[in-house]
Amino acid sequence: xxxxxxxxxxxxxxxxxxxxxxxxxxxxxxxxxxxSDVALFEAISKAPCANKWPHVxxxxxxIASYSGExxxxxPGVAKTVxxxxxxxxxxxxxxxxxxxxxxxxxxxxxxxDEVADAAREERLKAYAEKKAVKPGPIAKSNVILDVKPWDxxxxxxxxxxxVRGIIKEGLVWGASKFVPMAYGIKKLTIVAVVVDDLxxxxxxxxxxxxxxxxxxxxxxxxFQKI
Length: 226
Hints:
Elements: E1 7-8, H1 12-21, H2 35-43, H3 54-64, H4 68-73, E2 86-87, H5 93-104, H6 117-132, E3 140-149, H7 156-164, E4 171-180, E5 186-195, H8 201-209, E6 215-225
C-alpha cells in the first residue's frame, strides 16, 4: 500500500487517508523513522484528535518526541507533502515553534536611543544562558520483538494485549502483526521505541516472558539506535 493523501493533510480527507495508512505501520516508510515522517509531521498544523485519528496521533506523538537535531539526522531523501499526493494549509508545527522561539528573545531591545547598552548586554546574557541549558538529544532505540507462543492453540490476541499492557515511561509500542512459523503456529512481531536511559531491553523481554501461560520465548528480531 502506498500513501496517497489525496488532498490537504490538515483536512478530514487527508487525515483519514493517513490514519488508514498508519493503522498497521509505525512510520511512513519502513520500520524506522525517516525524513518522510518529518516532512509530513511538519505539514500538520496541530496535534490530530486522538479519538478521531488514533493512529495519526500515535505517530505524531512519536515524531514529536525527537529533538530538532535528531530529526535532521533521520535517514531518507527529503520529501514534501506533494510527494504523497497532498497539500498543506496553515503553519506547520516546526515553523510555528521557530517563530515562537524567535519571539521569546529580543536580542537588541527597543530601537529607542534611550535604551542603555547595559540593558542590551543583559538581554544577550539571558539569551546565551537560555541556549546553554537546553538539553542534548535523548538516546533512543527502535527494537522489533518476536513473541512466540507455546502452541497453535494459544490466543495470539491475548498475547498482543498482554504485551501492549506493559506501560512504562520512555516506552512506546508501534505496529504489530502475526507471522506464520510452522505447524499452524504464529508469532507476534511488534515494534517498540524506547528511551535508553529509562527502559532496558533486557527488562522488557523479561517482563513479556513473565507471562508464562501465554509466552514461550521472546527474540530480538532487529535493533537500531535512533
